[in-house]
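Input.
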Amino acid sequence: MQQLSAEAEKTLPISPMIVGDLEAPDEINLAEKIQSLEKSILGHFERFAGEVDKQLASIRNTESVNQQLFDSLHAELLKYRDNFLHESLQKPFIHDLVYLYDHLNGLCDQLSTAAQEKGKRSRVSQWRDNLENAIHSLVEILHRFEVHEIEPRERVDRACHRVINFEPADFPEEDGTIVMRVKRGFVWRGKLIRPEEVIAKRYG
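Output.
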């Protein structure tokens, strides 16, 4: 047995097992590959993140434009609705209120004349006072509908006055001077509803 063993040792080459030295180059190569792979993945990820940021910015810009378009359309629809309501529904009603104001003022003038004849303590005087209060309430209603009286002016303005009669003027500079306001004029939301009727002076 010992002889066989000795012969076997002679025939087999001596190969010392240096495991560490044989595996070291493979480990270095594997670490480099892992680092290279990490760099590649990181680069792809950074490019992907950049693309996502661009897409998000584009979406935000698109949403901003869409929001502006929506707001503009919404404002236009509100304006159209308001104009429709005002022109179609309120305007005829406001004209009726202005005519009612005219009739009540005419009646008040008649009562004022009768009250002067009968005296301040008469029943007619009380009716006139009650009617004046009703006219004041009507004016407040008109104000709530954005209807306002034309402010008194000294000279005729064709944009808001209608001259129904003239009185002679003694001097040229008096031409166009308003002598009396006969019927009040009204403006509704910046538009002329009814011109003010006046008597003015005319020279020559």
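Confidence is low (pLDDT under 50) at residues 11-23.
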